[in-house]
Amino acid sequence: MKSWKIIGALLASWLVILIYMSNSFSSDNNNANDLERQLKRALRELEQLKTQNNQLQSVAEDIRKVKLKSGGNSQLKEIEDRFNKIDNGNSKTEVKDTCQAVFYSLAHELQQRKVDRDITEFWFYMNTKLEKLKTNGNNEAAKDILKTAQDYQRTLRNDMQSLYDTDEMDKWREKEGKELGELVQKRLHYIQNPKDCSKAKKIVCNLSKGCGYGCQLHHVTYCLITAYALERTMVLESKGWRYAAAGWETVFLPLSDNCIDRQGQGARHWSDPRNLVNEMAIEMPIIDSLHPRPDFLPLAIPEDLAPRLTKLHGNPSVWWIGQIVKYLTRPQPHLQKDIESVNQRLKFSGPIVG
């Protein structure tokens, strides 16, 4: 009798799996990416079901053989354990596949970010209104509400962070961010190291803008973005720089291994990019006087990276500019040593801004 219960359980499990698969195919999904993902998942499940079918047939055959023998209780227990392993393996696979589907859902990512922004905006609203109440003579009541509301806001932000980290999504983001970052750095290295510098078209960037370091870094950043967009090699002219008279390369690594000057080429001043296609060198003005302004300036991001980057990061332009600055400010060994020394002395434990 016990063996028939096991067989019945096997058949019931098989039926549930078939119903589940039919439901997976019957859902109406207009999103082509989601449909493709469902199809791939269904094919994976079909392969798993084939394997499980063979395992179940083997179990059923063993049950039939045990029935023909006497004293087969221990063997029945062993067979029952085998069935449980098959069933548990199927459940774990379903959970894993569901998580993978979440990793690659753009709609899911965007909705999470919207909720995160709504929490922040609601807090700004509450804080502003209650601060006004404080100035109108309701000081104690407003302070009490503000404190409680702030506690709720912290809790909600913590909940959102937990949601971001659910199902190892943080690991997916880390992996995707690393892969995209490596891709951008390779592209920058490629355009900055042409096979023949004398034949390479160039963007000439002069570091004589009369402003502070941050402002000058903005200038160099927009020059490299222009070089990337126009597929040219950027040449940085930085001798006499106010922060290092010997030039940028005495502090940071050279922007190129083999193309660090104009190669005697004259440079044409910036104008409509369509009129500059055949010019070997283009000299960039400070961004304040840049006219016409091209579409690829911030907050624009590369079109081919946009789908992955929008999915990965809530502010894609910040990530993109960060990659440009990363390439520009790769430290020379002596600067890297100084940075590490300060880091150890001040015991920095996270990103430092300002």
Written description of the protein model:
This protein is mainly alpha-helical. The chain has 3 domains: 103 residues; 61 residues; 154 residues, no CATH class. 64% of the residues lie in helices and 4% in strands. It is built from 10 helices and 4 strands. Strands 2-1-4-3 form a 4-stranded parallel sheet, covered by helices on one side. Helix 2 runs antiparallel to helix 3 and helix 4 packs antiparallel against helix 5. The longest helix is centred in the first third of the chain and has 36 residues. The protein is extended and about 85 Å long. About 5% of the residues have low confidence.
The helix content, as a percent range, equals 55-70%
Distance between the termini: 75 Å
Number of H- or I-type helical stretches: 10
Q: Name the helix and strand elements from N-terminus to C-terminus, one letter apiece.
A: HHHHHHEHEEEHHH
Cα-atom radius of gyration: 31 Å
Catalogue the unreliable spans: 24-30, 91-102
Secondary-structure-based class equals: mainly alpha
Shape, principal axes of CA atoms: extended
SS strand fraction: under 5%
Total domain count: 3
Described by strand count, sense and barrel closure, the largest sheet is: 4 strands, parallel
The total count of strands amounts to: 4
GO biological process, one term: protein N-linked glycosylation
InterPro entries: Fut8_N_cat, GT23_dom
Protein name: Glycoprotein 6-alpha-L-fucosyltransferase
Keywords: Coiled coil, Glycosyltransferase, Signal, Transferase
What's the short story on this structure?
The protein is mainly alpha-helical. The chain contains 10 helices and 4 strands; from the N terminus they run ααααααβαβββααα.
